[in-house]
Amino acid sequence: MIPHREVYWNIEGHLLIYLFLVIALIFFFYGYYRLYKYWRIGQPRDLSGHAWERIKSVLVNAFGHARVLRETYPGIMHFAIFWGFLVMVVGTIIVMLEADLGFKLIYGNFYLYFMSLGLDMAGLAAIIGIVMAIIRRYVLRPGRLDNKPDDAWSLILILVILITGFVLEGLRIAATRQPWDVWSPVGWLIAGWLGPAAPWQETLHRVLWWAHMALALGFIAYIPFSKLSHIFLSPLNQYYRSLEPKGALIKLDLENEEAESFGVAAVEQFTWKDLFDAEACTRCGRCRDNCPAHLSQKALCPKKLIQDIKGELEIKAPVLLSATAVGVEGQAAEAAASSEAVQSIASRVLIGEAVSEEEIWTCTTCRSCMEQCPVFVEQVPKLVEMRRYLVLTESRFPAEAQTAFRNMENNGNPWGVGWANRADWATELGVKVAAEDSDMEILYWPGCAGAFDDRNRRVATAMVKLLQAAGVNFGILGTEEKCCGDSARRLGNEYLFQMLVEENVETMKGYNVKKIVTQCPHCYNTLKNEYPQFGGDFEVVHHTQYLLELVSSGRLKVQKPLGKRITYHDSCYLGRYNDIYREPRQLLQAAGGTQVLEMERHHNRSFCCGAGGGRMWLEEREGQRINIMRTEQALATNPEVVCTACPFCLTMLGDGLKDKGLEEQVAAMDIAEILAGAV
Predict the structure, then answer these.
(1) What's residue 328's pLDDT?
(2) Strands 641-644, 566-568: parallel, antiparallel or unpaired by DSSP?
(3) 7-24 burial, b if ≥16 CB within 10 A, otherwise e?
(4) Domain 4-33+53-239: CATH class, spelled out
(5) Does the domain spanning 267-393 belong to CATH 1.10.1060?
(6) Which residue has the higher pLDDT, 385 or 593?
(7) In the predicted model, is pLDDT for residue 567 greater than 90?
């Protein structure tokens, strides 16, 4: 029989193990403290409060793997590794509590079900997960994974620890041969391969036990210095994720007289949470595979963006921290920073050195990267902050953006049509204007597209006829309505955005507006999620929600369903930003009289039309055109009608059909137009 007691419990061995454990923990905590110091060079951001909601987020996304399991193979792989290791860690802690502190925990059925069968199954699951990871990385080799040496060493280290653990269990069972060993099926199987107890097994057990312990303790020390750091950083990032409305960007204090610049140009100007994001990123590449800019061969790759920010942080943080420490301890700070190399690093800017301007302006702010990220990294706000710096501090932006800014400032709309013509579309429709009669059930907000774009005026007209048919008491602001400011804010012009918001809020409060209905998801998102930052607390409803309510209540009756094959395109700002997926489809089924055809990319994986983030007003100079790619995805369903619920999407898909020469065979329509024809 192998003398386990001598191996585990002689004084020298006992002390040696705990000495190594202390050393491993010193490396472990130092490694994470180093990372903590790095991201704390960022600006403050208050993410305290809502503890229970944050805990639920960790339970669902870290322990439940809600987002990870959206993709089957990597989801199962990671689930097996995560839960396998977690169960084994719990088992190891229980052994330590009993062996070292005298807690009597391991007995009876608990020993059989958890400590024997449970731990064996957990270890086996972890091994299967690791093998799946190795096959995926080094055999299947999906393009989104960048295999670094650290990845291979991490997988090999974990696999060796698991295998040596099972071999040790097999050696123990081979030596003891207890009746209950069958409850440890993997160890029992290995014991059968080893045969009867023999002296060489005792020697192997001693050597392997110390090797296993050394690897396990080395693993603990290695975690914060490797990709494995995400074991702890990912759940923390899930805990500290923003709980603000998904569609709301951070408000800039433009009246801050102490601010030397606005937006972000250097890595230390990001918030600590932005820098934490960079460290928590697991490089899984899901953002890359769902980014329309990257998939259309443009400069931006969300994964590369975050890794470039991380690289800049790791270059700059040690220098900034060193200079700060010297300055606190003595008068040598100036001397410490005097070297040309140190000065060069300390003065590094992010834009142009780590992130190109092409990357910054290519983003459509579709939020697909953020929606798919398992650890809730926030790519879009970082890009907008860099846009803010370029616009507000450097006055450096694409020429077409200047035209859009000027039009919004002078005429209150990006089309540049005179503000006095804003209500012309409604002249012959009998729509009342708030200035003449402010007693209304709802304020209808057609938006700039509904007022000035010829194609989208037809949507606004259809919407008015539906509201009139339902007997809704509504009105418009008319010439007093100005652009909601969505494009201005997402192009980085926070000053123009706030100017437009303040004027609109003042106007609507003057008419005591309570409820707003709009057909534009960009207007919907801005009015609902961002106007409250400026005191604009209104009930905002998208027209798909309101029209479904009218149909469901019987105020609108479908008489002649369209009866054509319809494919529906989820607008980014309606779907991913505001989780409105059900209402448009229910409305289409009622108005179309047929099942809605789903594209390959739909719901939260919907593909952007290419117009978001102010890209509606910018030229698309490189790669494939995003709207053409989305049009091709729609045509793959063999539709007669391509339907959407967004004026930008309607324009982009309509242009895509024209580019294909199919505008006569396939119609691009808004839901309101389909419903208007059905009633």
Answers:
(1) 42
(2) parallel
(3) eeeeeeeeeeeeebbeeb
(4) mainly alpha
(5) yes
(6) 385
(7) yes
